[in-house]
Write a structure and sequence with these properties.
about 500 residues, elongated, 5-stranded mixed sheet
Length: about 500
Amino acid sequence: MAFGVASGSTAAAGLVTAIIAGIVIGSLSGAPYQISGPTGAMSAVLIVLAQRYGLEAVWISGALSGILLFLLGILKLGRFVAFVPAPVISGFTSGIAVIIMVGQLDNLFGINSPNADSAVLKLLALTQHSFEINPYSLIMGLAVAFLILLWPARLGNRFPATFLAIILATAAEILFEFPVDTIREIPRSLLLTHHLTFASLDWISIEKYIVPTLSITALGAVESLLCGAVAGKMTGKPLHANQELIAQGLGNMLIPFCGGVPATAAIARTSVAIKSGGQTRAVSIIHALALLISMWFFAPIISRVPLPALAGVLIATACRMNEWHALRFYFNKRLFTAITKFLVTLIATISLDLTWAILIGVSISALMFLNQASHLTVSLSPVDPTRLDPVGKSDVEHYQNITVAYVTGPLFFAATGHFVEALKKLDNTHSLILSMRGVPLIDSSGLMTLSELSERLERHGAKLLFAGLNPAVESLLSRGGLIHRAPTSNVFWSAGEAISAAAKAHAK
């Protein structure tokens, strides 16, 4: 219910989403332990969308994201979600926690502040206007939040603090009739009065839903697969990523037509299910049926749940959703690269559209990776015959002017400049041996650079030899025409073999 309200919709929409997701997505998910429904992370995306374009935009974007998620699963692209670095996910998660907290300040204080497109702008709006805080709302919301945060874990496994807090807050509102806002009417139907219909689809201005759809799709895929990764470690059962995306897609295509909000796998609910002994998909289905029964038989009581209490639940959830163990690891170990990725993503999340936050975080990570990966080392070493097996004095001259270049690191577009500079001066060299056992990969730019080097050596009557190639690198060099086969092979297992072959060729 809290996530339904936080999404810009209603508590009933949150219940409908949890019920349909529990049955549809839970039945088809990529693992038996996945529990799906409305989540805090998704609500942070939806509240901005609802404020900017209205609730209908949430439904349309949710349905379109369901189609994209389904296609991602069908095309078996689930593994690409793993390309999002962990610090970026941590920054995104912490940013969403801030958005959730800021978004609940109205319900916590009992006020109505202007809508804003980001958490930063929302805070600025709160500071620029004067509001009369409702003390009953503030006390109730903080009491609920502290009860949830301070509730002992050993008791939480038997009786969830969230459930207890909502019961106490609702009982207090019913008994003492505090002047606070409540949920009010809860429909006893899975088809809400306001829902998406095919007639209401706005195909003419569909382009305005592209960015929100990508946001929901990206978040839904990342959070669902991340939930599966966490739960997989707890159970020892791996998640079938593509099947999970198919299930999420089908569920999210259906939910908007019932009036619900986009769903994704919920780490908290999945963890509770596993710790409670859940082992099959029946857990997700039974939890959905229990919610359905509650909607039918306890709607009058649920309608009296105070909104400040739901705000307290969301604030506590936001505090807990931060990946504190990961943040402590980054800062205690002084991993400045990870810290930079985390902070950039966090700031982008609370300041910009969430799709841009993910793109900025991934882009910064890619640039940092390229910077680290481009550290190619090239060590030039002329051959010293005295360090080889004993040779006659007449043979020493055959080993002169043979140069060995020990190359370590990937030879790709970002590293070719350094490679060319290191091999710029090769005076009086009749054989250059590239010892490339430390080169894991070469791209087209690296292949072109080696081709140009080979041509330059040939113009001066010198030869290019290779040693210690891994199969992938050797295959690409062969396709590029840089490798010669017997009897004039220029590829050797070790630098020593290449040196001996170069000396023999020079003796002839």
